[in-house]
Amino acid sequence: MALLKILTAPDPRLKERALPVEKVDDEIRQLMDNMLETMYAAPGIGLAATQVGVLKRVIVVDVADTKNGEEPNPIMLANPEVVKASSDQSIYEEGCLSVPGFYEEVERPETCTIKGLNRDGKEVEIKAEGLLATCLQHEIDHLEGTLFIDHLSRLKRNMIVKKLTKEKKLKEAATDHNL
Ligand code: GNR
Ligand code: NI
Fold first, then answer.
1. Residues 10-20: what's their mean pLDDT?
2. Which of 55, 64, 151, 175 has a CB 3.0–4.6 Å from the CB of 70, allowing a cystine?
């Protein structure tokens, strides 16, 4: 197992569309395991392969509240797809490991049905609501090159991207200085 590096915006790789997984083989299983480990370490409740620079349609999610005694409940999917979404919408304050430090309200379908291949390559269907529904939709967005900030007004998005760009420049300068 290994921790993977998480890309942060603005990075052109976060805007690319990921390619379907042809077969859930050992390489994909290893990617899923490493992504899950990386997600728990971050910590986060979801992670898409796009965020670790791998343009394959793979996501991992665990919304269990382990701090309050809930058992871990990892979900690992290849080729996840929204097959049904409610017309009822709900609003969650979202964050993203690729947009560190920013949290904004995003409106999405309240419930949805997701289809995909599990770690054994078996087709599964998940009926999701609440935070799980939001998180699964957020992860599938990543595979299309979409970040939660793309759901905000252009003004809000530009402000966030500008701040992240500035932080990246400061970090680079610090690194150069340490050479
Ligand atoms: O850790 C995360 N928390 C979160 C909170 C509300 C809605 C979505 C998320 S996903 C995010 C981890 C992440 O960036 N996944 O892509
Ligand atoms: Ni994210």
1. 98
2. 64
